[in-house]
Amino acid sequence: MLLQSLWDFILGYNACLRSPFFPVLFSLSVYLTFCLPFVVLDLLSPRLAWIRTFKIQQKSHVSWTMMWSCLAHSLYNHVVFLFPLSVLHWFWRPASFIAEAPGTLRLIWDVVACLLLFDFQYFIWHLLHHKVPWLYRTFHKVHHKHTSTFALTTEYSGAWETLSLGFFAGVNPLLLGCHPLTEMLFYVLNIWLSVEDHCGYDLPWSTHRLVPFGLYGGAPHHDLHHLKFKSNYAPYFTHWDRLFGTLHKHSD
User: Fold this and answer.
1) Is the pLDDT assigned to residue 121 strictly greater than 90?
2) What is the pLDDT of residues 201-233, one digit of tens each?
3) Contact 17/95 with Cβ under 8 angstroms?
4) How far apart are CA 246 and CA 237, in angstroms?
5) Dihedral angle at the C-alpha atoms of 125, 126, 127, 133, nearest 10 degrees?
6) Which of 252, 188, 190 is nearest to 220 (CA)?
7) Residue 188 burial by Cβ neighbours in a 10 Å radius (0-12, 13-18, 19+)
8) Are 24 and 78 within 8 A, CB to CB?
9) Percent residues over pLDDT 70 in the chain
């Protein structure tokens, strides 16, 4: 009932959903909304010592210049690269929506499946772009400009990386035959986890503290990757890094 009510509410904005502007505006607005709380923390942390206790790299400082640089870069990628592709997709595969919402268990299963598949795809992509020097220099190096991450560094990347990760996120719901509502919720969750990965804070309610047995790496896992470069290639979960021997912890 809850999912059907939510889906009926979303379908009430059918004209917006079918617009070629919607995918880019949706992803950008969700991204900036999730970044905002961490931007506030970054602005307050120099003045409030208790906030700094949660920073992973406590000596790091995020300036306005760094924030604006990352934000401008993200906006550029959305306007120059993502929006034209969104329009092409709009012509090639017009949006179609069914009236019935997915079942709760099917939605959860599909979201988890999309997330696990994306985690694998990005791990392979990421590993290759570190192990092959030309790939790193040409495509991935820009994302490693900041060795101490903050939320707005999430989408500070080159065109190839932006398009590659966008392709993985976009194609997985299609491959798995997901309901449009499931697809939207996967996008929202994926964006949140990406922002949290780069936020630079180890908060008491962080995802890696909620998932048991060290199965999920979270912000400390990914922050260490930006600091050391040669470990922790999976974006979210830790099993691929364990299998490939590339898992490192702050205590290592």
Assistant:
1) yes
2) 999 999 999 999 999 999 999 999 999 888 999
3) yes
4) 12
5) 100
6) 252
7) middle
8) yes
9) 99
